[in-house]
C-alpha cells in the first residue's frame, strides 16, 4: 500500500469479520468492527449472513441425516480416478 493511502473501511471490516465472530478481537478491534457494522448496511448484512451460516453448520453437524438422503448423496458421488 502506498504511503498515505486510505484503507477502505469495508475491507477492514471484512478482515475483522471472522475473528469478530470467533470472539478473538481485542476490545479496541471489537469496538472498531461494531462501529462500522452499526453504520454500514452492506457489512451488517454480510455479518448476519456469516452468523446464520455458522448457526446452520452447527445445527447440521448434530442432526442425523435421513438414510434415504445419505443414499441419494452416495449415488451422486463420482470417482476421482
- What is the approximate shape? elongated
Distance separating the two termini: 44 Å
Question: What is the N-to-C order of secondary-structure elements (H for helix, E for strand)?
Answer: HHHH
Task: Tell how many strands the DSSP assignment holds.
Answer: 0
CATH class: Mainly Alpha
Q: Which regions are unreliable across 5 or more consecutive residues at pLDDT < 50? A: none
Question: What is the helix tally?
Answer: 4
- Roughly how much helix do the residues carry, as a percent range? over 70%
Query: Which second-level CATH architecture applies?
Result: Orthogonal Bundle
* Count of structural domains: 1
User: How many strands, which pairing sense, and closed or not: the largest β-sheet?
Assistant: none
Radius of gyration: 19 Å
Description:
The protein is mainly alpha-helical. It has a single domain (9-76), classed as Orthogonal Bundle (Arc Repressor Mutant, subunit A), CATH 1.10.10. Helix content is 72%, strand content 0%. The protein is built from four helices and no strands. It has helices at 9-21, 27-39, 41-62, 67-76. Helix 2 (27-39) crosses helix 3. 7% of the residues are buried. The mean pLDDT is 86.
Topology (SSEs and partners):
Elements: H1 9-21, H2 27-39, H3 41-62, H4 67-76
Q: How do you describe this structure in short?
A:
The chain is mostly helical and 81 residues long.
Q: Keyphrases for this structure?
A:
mainly alpha; Arc Repressor Mutant, subunit A; 4 helices
